[in-house]
Design brief:
The chain has about 210 residues and is α/β, with parallel strands linked by helices. It is about 40% helix and about 15% strand. It contains eight helices and seven strands, in the order H-H-H-E-E-E-H-E-H-E-H-E-H-E-H. The strands form two sheets. It has a five-stranded mixed sheet with strand order 4-3-5-6-7. A hairpin with a 6-residue loop joins strand 1 and strand 2. The protein is elongated, with a radius of gyration of 20 Å. The termini are far apart.
């Protein structure tokens, strides 16, 4: 791409760094902003700057939050004895959109992937175990993407907490093996949560 303006080129380059945004899409976004009134653009850039400056992560579940405790963990109507273990914040949003889960969450921050240099110590696994000791958790639902990395993480954690008095389940196979949880449609994801199964049963059954 040839640009007549260095400012335009720099803005396009920055937008193109966002995931899923190519150079052409970045150019459309930048040209759109250029056509907007200055106050609206300042509101946009101000919101992004404030987000980066003030965003917090919940001390209990590691979800994004405006305060030390997120709105879910501080909601007295949520079932604190039911905790859904997910890979990322995107997965929390995906499950919440189904409106079929009333418990709390625990965001691991990824999955075990030796090829990518991600080991158990880089995930919030110890924090999860700490929650089992401090809170009266009765069931852990593992809602990890059904990939080799997700299964490895599931097996590792379930082995570490096997002796603890907590029910360990995983979402049903409405989601194809190798798929990403955040891209599942809401109905499929809702049914996967509702039809969850014990981890021992999942481990012993063949992968589809």
């Amino acid at each position: 791409m040839n640009f007549s303006s260095t400012l335009l080129e720099q803005a396009v380059q920055e937008f193109a760094k966002l995931p899923g945004i190519g150079k052409k899409t970045a150019l459309r976004l930048v040209l759109h902003l250029i056509r907007q009134p200055a106050p609206e653009v300042e509101l946009f850039t101000g919101a992004v700057a404030k987000l980066r400056r003030d965003i917090k992560f919940c001390r209990k579940c590691a979800n994004v939050s405006d305060t030390e405790w997120c709105n879910l963990c501080s909601n007295p109507m949520r079932n604190k004895r039911l905790v859904c273990v997910v890979e990322s914040i995107r997965d929390v949003i995906a499950i919440e959109s189904t409106q079929q889960f009333s418990g709390l969450y625990h965001v691991l921050g990824g999955v075990i992937s030796p090829l990518d240099g991600i080991g158990p110590d880089q995930l919030s696994i110890e924090a999860l175990i700490g929650r089992l000791e401090q809170d009266e958790v009765e069931e852990l639902i593992f809602a990890l993407s059904p990939t080799i990395q997700g299964d490895t993480t599931l097996f590792y954690i379930s082995k570490k907490i096997k002796s603890r008095p907590v029910r360990i389940t995983t979402i049903a196979r409405g989601i194809a093996f190798g798929g990403e949880l955040e891209y599942a449609d809401e109905l499929t994801l809702a049914r996967s949560i509702q039809n969850r199964q014990p981890v021992d049963q999942y481990i012993s059954s063949p992968k589809s």
